[in-house]
Backbone:
């Protein structure tokens, strides 16, 4: 409602107020439930030998996920050898960021990351997947695997 007033006398005050209604429609945001898994091989692994992480990002829907990104903050004490996705590309050394592109409902993309652990002990690798869409189950957007290094 808007009302107009004046310091001068108004002979017709009935037209000084107007009421209108506006509908605000929020933008439609799709839902895309990403699930991330990670496996290691071999486990245990010898220090100085290759350790392979196989990471899979799956879109459990119900809609298409656009701009899917995977982030792997590699554990301390490993040296990156390679990061190869089935689609998209990966960049980085201690943190590997993979731009995986769109992922249809029900589709998956894999990323194979090879590292060399430097010293004996236990290392844990945690990976996270992201998309611009609202994720109804964000708890399954990350995964971790612990490896014994001999």
Residues:
């Amino acid at each position: 409602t808007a009302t107009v007033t004046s310091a001068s006398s108004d002979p017709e005050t009935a037209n000084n107020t107007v009421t209108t209604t506006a509908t605000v429609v929020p933008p439609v945001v799709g839902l895309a439930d990403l699930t991330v898994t990670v496996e290691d091989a071999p486990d245990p692994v010898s220090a100085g030998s290759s350790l392979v992480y196989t990471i899979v990002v799956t879109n459990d829907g119900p809609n298409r996920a656009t701009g899917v990104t995977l982030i792997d903050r590699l554990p301390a004490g490993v040296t990156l050898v390679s990061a190869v996705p089935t689609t998209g590309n990966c960049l980085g050394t201690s943190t590997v960021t993979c731009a995986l592109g769109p992922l249809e409902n029900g589709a998956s993309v894999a990323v194979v990351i090879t590292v060399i652990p430097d010293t004996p002990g236990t290392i844990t690798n945690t990976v996270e997947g992201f998309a611009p869409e609202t994720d109804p189950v964000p708890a399954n957007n990350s995964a971790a695997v612990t490896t014994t290094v001999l």
In short: The longest strand covers residues 51-62. The chain has a mean pLDDT of 92. The CA atoms of residues 21 and 132 lie 32 Å apart. The chain has one domain: 32-149.
